[in-house]
Amino acid sequence: MTIANCYNRDMEPPPAGLPATLRSLKKTRTSLKSVKDELRDNLIGKLQAKEPLFPGIVGYEETVVPQVINAVLSKHNFILLGLRGQAKTRLIRMLVTLLDEYTPYIAGCEIRDNPFEPICRSCRRLVHEKGDDTPIAWLTRDHRYVEKLATPDVTIADMIGDIDPIKAARLGQNISDELTVHYGLLPRANRGIFGINELPDLAGKIQVGLFNIMQEGDVQIKGYPVRLPLDLLLVFTANPEDYTARGKIITPLKDRIGSEIRTHYPLTIEQGLHITGQEAWTARDSAIQLNMPDYIREIVEHLAFSARDDKRVDKRSGVSQRLPITVLENVASNAERRALMAGEDLAVPRVLDIYAALPSITGKLELEYEGELKGGDTVARELIRLATGKVFTHYLEGENLNGIVRYFEHGGQLKLDETEPSSAMLEALSAIPDLMEKTGKLGLGASEPDALRASAAEFILEGLYAHRRISRSEEVGFMAEPRRREQSVEDERKKAARRNYQ
Fold it and tell me: Is this model's pTM higher than 0.70 or not?
């Protein structure tokens, strides 16, 4: 009996109703489509049926997705080029939904050989010996996606393969025989999709091996030519920053990539809110009910948008969409912690919870020289203040808040404790004239829970602070803006002088 390199007698039985031998397979079809033809045909079917192609991918409907569709229809290998946190990897992983649910291969084959056109020597020998009795196994679409994160230490053996002397000794084969090859990731992805993340990090000689596969379909392993016309869709991701920071895509490989598709961050706040709401873990199985106000979500999203526009933040590195996602999760956790400590059953995040989420902000900001001088914490705090001011303007623009401002100008102060129960906080806030009435502009009435009303009132104070109408410090809390306080004192002095004169 011939021992084949990629034949395994202990194979799993095929799914019920699917052919188990080449003979029964030939009764249902005479050939198999290539991967790119399969993707193209299934994509055409989805487009005609108006089915969603990439559910969960938001903001790319008019930009990136049409270009991906064009690349698949053109049967191109393609690359997604964009900054971190732009859903590049998520998008290429979703390409598997365009594959058939099941596809046959020669059972036990390491490279999932096509039963009608086997390319490896062992499978060709197996088909020659067994003929129509050749056993058939089936791949699900999930098993047809292979992904590799490119790093400088990746070798040709990892990607293509190497001679295995132990296998040669076990099989009694000459070490130069093709049967002694231990296949790498690329051959093992045969008849599927092979994705490489951060392509510029891959060493130049490995990139050369890739374009040889893409163009010629053959490789050399330890000096022995092995013809492997692989059936693959190759997809890559890369960050433009990496072209100069860590490496580059060599010109011959770039020339062989059919389409270069640029990704981007959300173009509007609404798109960002949709993505963050979809990805952030805020629907929690907890004894504490979480109620996340819209203005808190909007502040967190504006924080990311403001950071992307800030000159102190490195534009080449970008600000990942993971920033608002992790910040929102941290904000929810801080509110949950406060409710647990206070013995409350409702957690409502406040603006102060966003400041408490600084650890999830500073680690995601790559700062320019000016930002480094100020420090990550300072830059993050200023970005929160800026974002709060924008959202405050959206909700309360044109509203007369002079009564609240005058309270502080006349010597009023308010220090809020992060862990303070909602009832105590609401009592302190209610002492400020007009403040609780203005929460109605946020859709809240007097019957709303204390935690919601307290959060809304604190948002109004933070908005006034963001617009520099009042001030705030860690020691004193909210107080009058120094210049306004001085002006108010001067006005009172002048009024008293006029009264004395009269």
Answer: yes
